[in-house]
């Protein structure tokens, strides 16, 4: 018997993105699933958009006061009927066999939760494709996330994540964290004896941020969240989490070496790194403009994440601040 699926979408304002997501869901080869859309206090009316799809999709729509994505997903999960909860962000597009592959994989790959990759759609603009590269590349933190072939366990991300409803309820769903709530859930599952898996045939097209400023702010927040996660789950700390901070500090040391000693030994390694990123991005995208912007987005990602990680580590471990006091915006409003 095939598993029943409830897709849960927490959304705030993104009307156009919601239209694209629902359009992709109308094209599914397997149409046996429900969609739970939870409007997290949007200032834009989403009902007209949803109304366009009510005849072709089994949609349940709810609206609540704004509290952030994690608690909003919990709200939707509590109103879902499926055996499995599939969380996707409102700014993704899924391929037509997404549901079909999920059901087949659940039956053949034993797990309590799963996740899939993200990639750039051919319709994305050049900057979105460059940011997608840096967020998934083996030369950045994207290469640390894990995959089917990774030695470590895979941590599903909430833009493309499935969990058994009974298991989700048992661990209490997403925590009070606003940033980093998805790896937090994955590690909570492990700590309770549950397993996660990577499904390599359910990748989604994830738009992410549309300019470098927003992207920098986003990955900075990710960096801040990691030391908090390390405190919450000390058994799953990895030295690789500090790599962007070491990258940033090494770059600063390279400039000091150059200006104080007249040597560029350290910076030469960064020149090689830049060369590798440029040609790897060019090989994957076949576009020199995307490759050039991928270099920029890669450095933004490493520096912003690295700075956020360093700041958070100092506040939590040197000044002994509580995470809720150091980063109040990282926690949901109750």
Average residue pLDDT: 94
Biggest β-sheet description: 7 strands, mixed
The CATH class designation of the domain at 5-125 and 146-210 is Alpha Beta
Superfamily (CATH H level) name of the domain at 5-125 and 146-210: Spore Coat Polysaccharide Biosynthesis Protein SpsA, Chain A
Low-confidence residue ranges: none
Strand order of the largest sheet: 3-2-1-4-8-6-9
Written account of the structure:
The protein is globular and about 70 Å long. Helix 2 (47-51) links the parallel strand 2 and strand 3 (58-64). Helix content is 48%, strand content 13%. By secondary structure, it is α/β, with parallel strands linked by helices. The model has no long low-confidence stretch (mean pLDDT 94). Helix 9 crosses helix 11 (288-317). The strands form two sheets. A seven-stranded mixed sheet has the order 3-2-1-4-8-6-9. Strands 5-10-7 form a three-stranded mixed sheet. The longest helix has 30 residues, at 288-317. The chain has helices at 15-26, 47-51, 69-77, 98-108, 126-136, 165-171, 181-191, 212-232, 243-261, 265-285, 288-317, 323-326; strands at residues 5-11, 34-40, 58-64, 84-88, 92-94, 113-115, 118-119, 160-164, 196-198, 204-206. The protein has twelve helices and ten strands. It has a domain at 5-125 and 146-210: Alpha-Beta Complex (Spore Coat Polysaccharide Biosynthesis Protein SpsA, Chain A), CATH 3.90.550.10.
